[in-house]
Amino acid sequence: MRELRELLARTLAAEGALVEPIEPEGLEIVAPPHLQQALALPEWSRVGFGPELPVQATRVSFESDWAERLERLLGERGRLAHAILQQHPYPPPRHEFEKIVQRDFVLQNATFRLGQVEQARARYLLLVFHITASSDERREDLVYLCINESNGALADDLARPLLSSLRSVDRSEGTLRNEAAPASAWPAPQIPTLAAGLLMPKIPAQLSPFLAGMERRMARDLERLHVYHSDLRAQVTERLAERSRKGGSVEALEADRMRLETIEREYHAKVGDLRRKYAMNVEVRFLQALRADMPVRRADVTVLRRKGSRKTHLDWNPIAKRLDHLPCESCCTSPRIYSVCDDRLHWLCPSCLSSCPSCGKESCRACNPAKCAKCSHNWSERSWFQ
Ligand SMILES: [Zn+2]
Ligand SMILES: [Zn+2]
Ligand SMILES: [Zn+2]
């Protein structure tokens, strides 16, 4: 809650309020008219954040409507910031660095040559999204996407340490700036498309505990439904068998058969209802972007496959203290081991260079995103990522 108190205090002060910290864990606020209106506050007020509230204070928490009040106040401000970080990394020595690259950049069917290792500057684009997943229950979460714009590598482990490092940086240095994107940055109109591709594989992973809980509840309900209707079916089948053994009337036998059909129809309709009840709807909303320019340790790498070669570079980030990770160039997941295609030397996860299920020929899903080049089989199983 200390974070929320600091955030609110800084925002209110920047908007011209007088803000004093009070104990326990609270703030005393004298708000100018525009703040009183935007945040529904009186001129003088006290707010509290901890389990115990200061005298005359109202509670502020992330769960209350304060997040929305602040969002209303800020509007589009603060959506994009640019940070220039100067601190130089303490890079691992070259032999260590080579070991890290060998360990983290594993190619299944190709090799690579490590070129120059030098100090460079990289620009990271950190995008923050709010996701809401709703089915029979509702879950909200934040997803971070952190991309090294110089080579498209992912640096998701950088997101949280970068944000806390920015919070701890002395603001008088003017580290955070609001300025136009540099020429080498990703073009703004393309960012939503590029980000959507990278975001897609992350969402199921992020929601997996929620999904697992939902699947458990759905399996339990389906099982109950199955048991109930199986019992009903067994009773009517037994009655029908007995009636026909004893030579029951045609009408009575027909009524039992119709009853069986009704039970079957009812069962399928209820299964359909359950599937609709548990169908998940995921809404993704962009919140904030931060461009961070910082020194990195850079290694030039040439990937070698048969007679072909392709150059790229890998950056070691001093804040995350690790190598950024190149995503699969087809499905954007982060493979532990890459396969490299023959034609354009795409680096891919193994399943994006797997055999075509129809003709059995190996086919690069980045070279042929829609269908197999040999037999035109559609990659329909990849619909999630398109
Ligand atoms: Zn892939
Ligand atoms: Zn094929
Ligand atoms: Zn390819």
- Inertia-based shape: flat
Rg result: 29 Å
Q: DSSP strand (E) fraction?
A: 25-35%
Overall mean pLDDT stands at 86
Encode the helix/strand succession as letters: HEEHEEHEHEEEEHEHHHHEEEEE
Helix content estimate: 25-40%
Number of DSSP E strands: 15
Main sheet attributes: strand count, strand direction, barrel closure: 8 strands, mixed
Q: Kindly, what is the distance between the CA atoms of the first and last residues, rounded to a whole number of angstroms?
A: 40 Å
What are the bound molecules? zinc ion
Count the helices. How many? 9
Low-pLDDT sequence parts: 382-386
Structural class: alpha+beta
Structure description:
Helix 8 runs antiparallel to helix 9. The strands form three sheets. Strands 5, 7, 8, 9, 10, 11, 12 and 13 form an eight-stranded mixed β-sheet that branches. This protein starts with a helix and ends in a 38-residue tail after the last strand. It is α+β, with helices and mostly antiparallel strands and 386 residues long. The chain has helices spanning 2-14, 33-39, 66-74, 94-104, 159-168, 191-199, 202-206, 208-245, 250-278, and strands at 18-22, 26-30, 44-48, 57-59, 80-84, 106-107, 111-134, 138-148, 153-154, 176-177, 281-305, 308-317, 322-323, 337-340, 347-348. Strand 7 and strand 8 (138-148) form a beta hairpin. The protein binds zinc ion (ZN) (3 copies).
